[in-house]
């Protein structure tokens, strides 16, 4: 069976998905209580866009009592991809709860577990946004930011919590809540700025903060100049 597992891994790595599935099916039958083979089957069928079988194996793994938040995240994302928003929100909520439980039980904080909490909260916030539930959307985005702040994860800010904070800022702008938006953009810039985050994203934050200042009748020149210095394409986008 070890040789079969190695062959399945090799087939998967070479994108020979159909062949990998045949090996995973044999392994799943031989080791009926090992959840990893069910997860691999779900992942392989997903690559083939065979979502009926993808759900079947995700469900089977969960029915066996799997409490891995990643599994619920994967199934939740698939639900959202297929516009099954309620089911996706439920799965992501379970993933958040399990991740937070794991985090609370760790003697030492682990970056990955905290990142998964942030990721799932942000994704669920996006799902709430898609159905117009702005109250729950803001609650999840805010919780994602707080989770990052509690872990002092500023080096990851632009990649994870920065996404939630940016989306919250954009929503504030859409609602003409400029003071709140300005605070979020300032937090983004102070959190990772040009020195700590991806330059293109930081340039975008400066540009958008400058636009908020422009709308408020404030001094926007510094932010616009900084955005242009970091990404010259903004030179052709003066505020109007």
Q: Could you list the spans in which at least 5 consecutive residues all have pLDDT below 50?
A: none
Shape: elongated
Biggest sheet: strands, sense, closure?
Answer: none
Radius of gyration: 22 Å
The rounded distance between the terminal residues' Cα atoms is 66 Å
**Content of β-strand:** under 5%
Mean pLDDT: 88
- Spell the H/E element sequence: HHHHHHHHHHHHH
| Alpha-beta content class | mainly alpha
> Helix amount, in percent?
over 70%
Number of helices: 13
For the secondary structure, the number of strands is: 0
Characterization of the model:
- The chain is mainly α and 240 residues long.
- It has 13 helices and no strands.
- Helix 5 (69-81) runs parallel beside helix 7, helix 6 packs antiparallel against helix 7 (111-130) and helix 7 (111-130) packs antiparallel against helix 8 (134-150).
- The mean pLDDT is 88.
Short summary of the structure?
It is built from 13 helices and no strands.
């Amino acid at each position: 069976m070890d040789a079969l597992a190695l062959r399945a891994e090799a087939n998967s790595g070479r994108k020979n998905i159909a062949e990998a599935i045949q090996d995973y099916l044999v392994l799943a039958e031989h080791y009926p209580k090992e959840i990893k083979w069910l997860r691999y089957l779900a992942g392989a069928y997903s690559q083939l866009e065979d979502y009926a079988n993808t759900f079947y194996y995700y469900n089977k793994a969960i029915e066996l009592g799997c409490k891995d938040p990643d599994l619920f995240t994967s199934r939740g994302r698939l639900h959202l991809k297929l516009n099954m928003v309620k089911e996706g929100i439920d799965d992501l909520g379970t993933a958040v709860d399990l991740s937070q439980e794991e985090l609370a039980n760790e003697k030492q904080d682990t970056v990955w577990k905290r990142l998964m909490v942030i990721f799932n909260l942000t994704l669920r916030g996006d799902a709430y946004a898609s159905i117009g539930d702005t109250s729950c959307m803001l609650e999840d985005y805010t919780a994602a930011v707080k989770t990052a702040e509690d872990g002092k994860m500023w080096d990851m800010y632009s990649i994870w919590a920065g996404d939630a904070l940016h989306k919250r800022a954009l929503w504030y702008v859409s609602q003409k809540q400029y003071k709140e938006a300005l605070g979020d953009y300032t937090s983004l810039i102070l959190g990772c700025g040009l020195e700590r985050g991806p330059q293109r994203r930081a340039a975008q934050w400066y540009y958008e903060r400058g636009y908020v200042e422009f709308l408020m009748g404030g001094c926007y020149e510094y932010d616009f100049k900084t955005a242009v210095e970091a990404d010259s394409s903004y030179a052709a986008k003066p505020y109007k």
